[in-house]
TrEMBL record:
UniProt key word DNA repair: no
Name assigned to this protein: ABC transporter ATP-binding protein
Species name: Rhizocola hellebori
GO molecular function: ATP binding; ATP hydrolysis activity
Membrane topology: Peripheral membrane protein
């Protein structure tokens, strides 16, 4: 089921077990430890004292608006940038300066996929495999794993956005890394392609591979991640399991019915005094902290047409911490 988090056992995932290796054990061993991380570009503090840890086998998300510092943080963890100050440990080693031994244990899928021109999907992944001294058979297995076998002979510039992202992830996994970094892997994809990619990411993590994800999609993080760090202006504002962060918000329940079912005056009488009632001409929405009482009152009035009930989500937590203003 799409909304169910899976930590798949070998017998549940079948051939996938053979393709991406035996499960790593999830325990207290840290895959990543970051303390007091700083990175500035002139007057801009891209990362400003970030501190967090990622356990081995965890699916960890870093969330934040544009310019929050997510990509810079990932690039430091990947050994692509040097931090100004702070402590960073990735799989027990400092990522800077880059170490070949560490690079063999991590896989990186960048925000923008860049492939060699005029190569087919199969040629592309075989080339990546050869950089790690891995034979073409493994490359073909990964092509099958990400559902790209039928596109094996298609040149990369002819792939759709979702296909290109799947190929990019296959390239990041071809050497069977312990730790995988994914920077906005579903950016620009249509809803069907996003959800298909979610299944792949769950399967990868289900075998115990540690996954670190940055995303703008809050529903994606809520479904996939064991824990998330919400980041803004280079700082970690909140950290924990999505459900825990949502419960801590204590946000009201929003009950929506068809406009005209009850008057706004009657609806306001049902709502909590300090909460709002809104009517956009299609739906009337009552915010309340006593949803059972409001639902019972609406049922007595036979005013249940178009009923929907929504509790707080990770998006509500995100907006409460980072604000609602639009950012370029």
């Amino acid at each position: 089921m799409l909304g169910t988090k899976r930590k798949g056992r070998p017998e549940e995932t079948g051939a996938l077990f053979d393709l991406i290796g035996p499960p790593r054990m999830i325990g207290m061993t840290l895959a990543i430890a970051v303390a007091g991380l700083h990175k500035s570009y002139g007057e801009v503090h891209a990362v400003d004292g970030a501190t967090f840890e990622v356990q081995q086998g965890e699916f960890f998300g870093i969330l934040g608006p544009n310019g929050a510092g997510k990509t810079t943080t990932l690039e430091i963890l990947e050994g692509l940038r040097e931090a100004d100050s702070g402590e960073v440990s990735v799989l027990g080693s400092s990522p800077w300066p880059r170490k070949p031994e560490l690079m063999k244990r991590i896989g990186v899928q960048l925000q923008a996929s860049s492939f060699f021109e005029r190569l087919t999907a199969r040629e592309q992944i075989r080339l990546f495999a050869s950089l790690y001294g891995i034979g073409p058979a493994r490359a073909d297995e990964l092509l099958d794993l990400v559902g790209m076998t039928e596109k094996a002979h298609t040149r990369t510039e002819k792939l759709s956005g979702g296909q290109a992202q799947r190929l990019s992830i296959a390239c990041a996994l071809v050497h069977d890394p312990d730790l995988v970094f994914l920077d906005e892997p579903t950016s620009g994809l249509d809803p069907q392609a996003r959800r298909n990619l979610w299944d792949l990411l769950r399967d990868i993590n289900g075998q115990g591979h540690t996954v670190v994800l940055t995303t703008h999609h809050l529903d994606e993080a809520e479904i996939l991640c064991d824990r998330v760090a919400i980041m803004d202006h280079g700082k970690i504002l909140a950290l924990g399991p999505p459900a825990t962060l949502v419960r801590g918000l204590e946000a009201p329940t929003r009950i929506s019915i068809e406009s005209g079912s009850v008057s706004e005056v009657d609806a306001q009488a049902l709502a909590d005094p300090d909460l709002e009632v809104t009517d956009d001409g299609i739906s009337l929405t009552i915010a309340t902290r006593t949803p059972a009482k409001v639902l019972a009152a609406l049922a007595e009035r036979n005013a249940m047409r178009g009923l929907s009930v929504r509790g707080a989500t990770l998006e509500d937590v995100f907006l409460s911490l980072t604000g609602r203003e639009f950012r370029e």
